[in-house]
Design goal:
With 324 residues, this protein is α/β, with parallel strands linked by helices. The chain has helices spanning 33-45, 59-71, 93-107, 145-157, 171-178, 201-209, 240-248, 253-263, 275-282, 291-298; strands spanning 8-10, 16-18, 20-23, 49-51, 81-86, 112-117, 161-167, 189-193, 213-217, 267-271. Pfam families: Aldo_ket_red.
């Protein structure tokens, strides 16, 4: 598959999304200003797709970086593709547009290129991102995802966002939206964890059959944030097969892990705050993995999920009980 730095996938609504994006999530222990510095570097080295979310609590910092890079002439706004996400406490239809407007205000942007339902699991509306009762139990909130989706459609009609999609949805939840009576816009993408240990082949096949782009996060094995990730899980970039293939191509394991997803038609989100690694992660367009390497990497799949959101596994809309 021929891919260059300008490569984009055409979404089902006609808009184009760059095939490689820069992820901005960082664990709470890191200063939020790191996101600002890293986003500036990412734009300077060539990233044109920036992925963020209200839940990351760094939209203001990422927005400042974007504003600065537009201001100094590095990039024009229309050359950038910005993705934001609706958090779980804003699933009630009347809360969707105000949540989007708040993010746009923090970002200092007039519109988003893509707005996603971050997760299918509703939480109690309010100021707390993860609301808990007096016993410390998370307070769930029953919402119909189809109603949330209608509110997302209205955001698109209002010109606040160009494209709308979902994240962390399983096939059943995608079909709930796709089969909704009166559906105006299909989700353009489903953003999910995807890497050599969780290659999402069945979900990828389903999404492709519905003209829904699969966007992969955690592609290098996640941030290993102690709050969310089991520290006993293997370090993806240390995989001996991955390292051997990387040596054959004189590339880093991260570059091979990225290239593997791109050649399978997955939009890949690479995340780092290290300037050298940010630059390295964008240098994946000057080599191609032969079919035998792809097959070898496919063989590493073990359906291992780093981000299993087990905090909410008893939620009625928890997505990861299903096979895909």
């Amino acid at each position: 598959m021929e891919l260059g730095p300008e490569s984009c996938v055409t979404l089902n609504d006609g808009h184009k999304m760059p095939v490689i994006g820069f992820g901005t999530y960082a664990p709470d222990k890191f200063d939020k200003c790191l996101a600002e510095d890293a986003t500036k570097v990412a734009i300077e080295v060539g990233f044109r797709h920036i992925d963020c979310a209200f839940f990351y609590s760094n939209e203001a910092e990422v927005g400042r970086a974007i504003k600065m890079k537009i201001g100094d002439g590095t990039v024009r706004r229309e050359e950038l593709f910005y993705t934001g996400k609706l958090w779980n406490t804003y699933h009630d239809p009347e809360l969707v547009q105000p949540a989007l407007k708040k993010s746009l205000q923090d970002l200092q942007l007039d519109y988003m290129d893509l707005f996603l339902i971050h997760m299918p699991m509703g939480l109690k509306p309010g100021a707390d991102l993860i609301p808990r009762d007096e016993r410390g139990h998370i307070i769930y909130h029953k919402t119909d995802l189809r109603n949330t989706w209608e509110a997302m459609e209205k955001c698109k009609d209002a010109g606040l966002v160009r494209s709308i999609g979902v994240s962390n949805f399983n096939r059943r939840q995608l079909e709930l939206i796709l089969n909704k009576p009166g559906l105006k816009y299909k989700p353009v993408c489903n953003q999910v964890e995807c890497h050599i240990y969780l290659n999402q082949s069945k979900l990828l096949e389903f999404c492709q059959s519905q003209e829904i782009a699969l966007v992969g996060y955690g592609i290098l094995g996640s941030s290993r944030d102690e709050k969310w990730i089991d520290q006993k899980l293997p370090v993806l970039l240390e995989d001996p097969v991955l390292k051997a293939i990387a040596r054959r191509h004189c590339k880093s394991p991260a570059q091979v892990a990225l290239r593997y997803l791109l050649q399978r038609g997955v939009v890949a989100l690479a995340k780092s705050s290290n300037p050298e690694r940010i630059k390295e992660n964008f240098q994946v367009f000057d080599f191609q993995l032969p079919e035998e390497d792809i097959k070898e990497l496919e063989g590493l799949n073990r359906n291992l999920r780093y981000v299993d959101a087990k905090l909410w596994r008893d939620h009625p809309q928890y997505p990861f009980h299903d096979e895909y």
